[in-house]
Amino acid sequence: MLSIDIRSPGSRSTLQRELRSNTRAALSTIEHRISRFDLTRPEDYGMFLHVQHAALLGLKGAWPEADHRDFKEMTRRLQADLHLMGMTMPHIQAPAPVLPTDADRLGAAYVIRGSRRTAGVLRHRVAPDFARSYLGFVPTVSWTQFLARLDASVSNDLAHLAVIRGARAALQMISHLLAQALG
């Protein structure tokens, strides 16, 4: 799961700019690890899907109520794609991050929803005969709608810092899962 925001920097809120700044290094690490998967090979693609699935399940306790429907559908599609691919993968997991506040959980949701921003790019790297419903999923809540909710929900500096902390914790967990998968 990674995020690319194609809007101009001037149209982002202070929170959005700080989120990008404070997650840039972790996103770079994740992008590097994902680039090591050859998504035309069933084993690599299956492991990539398995990492995505483990990440969603690891963050499930932190899903904000407003995101539950989309995240549940993402999980269902991952399970279906893995099933259609006939993939039984080794069990990987990372400790679920502690995300005690709504703002922390919004940070994790930022990471999960941000992964949709690059799904189309990754989809083109996948062999055409592989199951790709997860990568093709379009959330009912758009990225723009989510960012507006994020900005409206964060009203003070402590909440602002908690969103960043939640995003970083989610990215750390994903990075750990990728490291396990790549051995």
Structural notes for this entry:
The protein is an all-alpha fold and about 180 residues long. The protein has one domain (about 10-20, about 40-180): Heme Oxygenase, Chain A. It is about 65% helix and about 0% strand. It has seven helices and no strands. The protein has helices at about 15-35, 40-60, 70-85, 100-125, 135, 145-155, 155-180. Helix 1 (about 15-35) runs parallel beside helix 7 (about 155-180) and helix 4 crosses helix 7 (about 155-180). Residues about 1-10 have low confidence and may be disordered.
Provide the descriptors you would attach to this structure in a database record:
disordered N terminus; Heme Oxygenase, Chain A; 183 residues
Set out the fold topology.
Elements: H1 14-35, H2 42-59, H3 68-84, H4 102-123, H5 133-136, H6 143-153, H7 157-182
Helix pairs in contact: 1-7, 2-3, 2-7, 4-6, 4-7
